[in-house]
Amino acid sequence: MTISTTTILNSYSGNGSTTAFAYTFPINTTSEITVIERSATGTETVKSEGTGSTNYGIADNGASGGTITMVTAPASGTTLLIRRNTSFTQETDYVANDPFPAETHEDALDKLQMQNQELEEELNRSLKISRTNSMTSTEFTTSASDRASKVLAFDSSGELSVTQELGTFKGSDATVTTAAYVQRDIIKSTTAAQLNNVYINVADSVVGDSLTDTDHFALLLDAKSAADSATAAATSATASASSATASASSASTASSHKDTATTKASEAASSATAAASSATAAASSATSAAASLDSFDDTYLGSKSSAPSVDNDGNSLATGALYFNSSAGNLNVWSGSAWVAIQADTDVKVSISSNDTTPNFLLSKLTAGTGISLAETNDGSNETITITNTGEDPTALAIALG
Hints:
Layout: E1 9-13, E2 20-23, E3 33-38, E4 44-47, E5 56-60, E6 66-70, E7 79-84, H1 102-124, H2 144-147, E8 150-154, E9 160-165, E10 168-173, E11 185-189, E12 198-201, E13 217-221, H3 223-255, H4 262-281, H5 286-299, E14 300-304, E15 322-325, E16 330-334, E17 339-342, E18 366-368, E19 372-377, E20 384-389, E21 399-401
Parallel strand pairs: 10-11, 14-15
Antiparallel strand pairs: 1-7, 2-6, 3-4, 3-7, 5-6, 8-9, 11-12, 12-13, 15-16, 16-17, 18-21, 19-20
């Protein structure tokens, strides 16, 4: 016989009715056939030749193959594998000076070829490095007990290593456990004091042990502390928003004391209100709320006994910044180079400039419109401007800053 095919196995899908399955390769004996049934879940069962309910019969037709007849038809979803499994024995014996036994010799060569084909099929199903790759050693010496429940990996040099341990999630349990656990079991706590904390078993434990017992469990994830921190951050953000709203209200009230400062104070109040609204919207984020409050705090510096030279964070003053002078009892605005007091008196006089020592200084800041005349008195001290309507329309009065 010659070996004219490299096929050593045939695979079929079960349908619950077919029982006869052909194999298309030669065998030396029917005992060198292996029949394996694989279930839909991956469970493999090796069948045996015989008449039992789970076994099979075989009819060999020589070099062309033969037929396997199952006693029970493989169910739908299962796979039936028929594989040659040649024994690794050498039974050919040559007698000295006898005629050359051609048939016997050919049978021995056929058996060797069958073994080679089966070995190649197994090698093709093995993990291997490529022909252009290299590895110092494909062996590892870790004992069975030391590599139990661990992962086969590669070390920093790319060599085989058995170091990584596996953990198994066992679901939820109370602080006082209701089940026994073994090393590397992972458990999530349902108790309020440790709610959603994740623990790993470091030493076999019994029912009734505590997840907080550090001799048997280690904390992997402190979810409870994280949740508490998030709640505290949200509370702080809400408090910051309330404080910002109160500050905005105070700035708005102060701005109403002087008509001239109404626009700037209103803008500051609007900015403060917007900052407060942003802080409220960001109550879930302490960082965002703090940033909004800091932005407002840089604009309205609060009540101080003397003029500040920097803002509340120690940074340069921003143009338009406000503070209330508790000593003088007035609101002040930063012009970009100096603090300007926003003041009011019973005569509703407006202090346009603090430079009252230069003659005509105030007059040079005003421009008379059509039908308007301006006259300055008290040059060089407390200047006074007299505005006279010289035109025909007594209601026409226009003043423009110089």
